Amino acid sequence: MSQNQKNETTELYGTVAIRENRLERWPNPQPERPYLISLDIPEFTCLCPRSGFPDFALIKIRYQPKDWIVELKSLKLYINGYRDRHISHEAAANEILNDLVALLEPRWMRVVADFNVRGNIKTVIRVEHGVRERVSTEPSAGENRGGTQFQDKDAKGDPKDGVADGEPIGLTHCVLLSGGLDSTTLVAWVKNQHPSERVVAYTFVYGQKHAVEVEAAQSVANYYGIEHHVVEIPVIHGSALTEPHIPLPEGRDLSRVSGVAPSYVPARNLVFLAQMAAVQDAVGPGVLWLGVHYDDHTGYPDTRPQFIQAVDQAVRQGTKHALRVQAPFVTWSKAQIIRWGLEHGVPYELTHSCYQGLRPACGVCDTCQARLKAFAEAGAQDPIPYAAR
Question: Are 163 and 233 in contact (CB under 8 A)?
Fold first, then answer.
């Protein structure tokens, strides 16, 4: 066999390395410090999913680590794995972000995919996770490079690393806490992601039948040692949760229901966020956190990703301190939330979900059924008592 024939039958070591590679992570040496890591990858390439022609891009990764940092050789091989893949610009950028967030669970991360011009069109994709804490990119006063004052800014005034100087450090994290499963997990999430920053919980009384949730919210706030405000507002009418003459559904097959749920409270989350924004904007920078999730998208319009994006933009544009709205579970199922919570010791025994406001919980209203189903899918036993399961 000739040398050329041997080369044709022997797989190249680089191809093997790319195929066998898995993204790896290292412990962050300074997990308490919200510093910035900037990674530029100038030779990204993939294939157009329609034509098969190659696409080339500069990939910029910026992130503030928490407990983990990415191992660079594994990242290089991971990026090289795209070279023979038929994938769109948008899908590639989002997939890179999703994979790195799943691996590292960073405080904040942004991926910018800056593709070369093709077909007379220039494409730049920016995707982001979490909320950034401000990190100075400029030297101390008087420091210079080459005899001139150094300013690490581009022509538009943004830092050259591609990270807009938008969110100040020292944020107050305002969590909408109902005392239910999702919002309690959200408190744990925020505490986990921002251990050194102030967390404040807000619980609203709006005429709901299940006002017992206020007691649960106070128990959760006490457990996590966070400040807790109970805010009473006028009754929000038009819902089975607030109107005595509208019965709450019981025993429904949730897999067959469609349309807006009878328990939807008109614009409830919008009202709550507006109240929280007004209180926080009066005192300083902050982030408003909401525990909405994927399973609620059909029945509750104010839990959908489109709502979160729109209200985040409205709050940011309409407040002095450019407050943000974040909903980290908006694409998660309730079972995924429970799995994360169980891994992080969330005290689900303190929570209350039953729309009937009963203890033990009724087990037949929509929210009791959804909760029991989610625990079953998560492979766990719900720790609260039920009158019926």
Answer: no
Reported as type and span, the H/E element at residue 333 is none
Q: Which amino acid does the sequence have at 247?
A: P
From 291, 271, 146, select the one nearest 213 (Cα to Cα). Answer: 291
Distance CA(20)–CA(16), nearest Å, equals 6
Q: Which residue has the tokens 């950028």?
A: 93
Sign of the Cα torsion 173, 176, 177, 182 reads negative
Q: How big is the chain, counted in residues?
A: 389
Please calculate the CA angle 284-286-290 and round it to the nearest 5 degrees.
145
pLDDT of residue 263: 87
Give the Cα separation of 242 and 264 in Å (integer). Answer: 10
pLDDT digits (tens, 9 = 90+) for 264-304: 999 999 999 999 999 999 999 999 999 999 988 778 899 99
Please tell me which of 4-18, 141-155, 302-316 the model is most confident about, judged by mean pLDDT: 302-316
Report which of 102, 56, 62 is spatially closest to residue 83, judged by C-alpha positions.
56
Q: What is the rounded CA–CA span in Å between residue 278 and residue 142?
A: 39
What are 103-121's pLDDT values in tens digits? 999 999 999 999 998 888 8
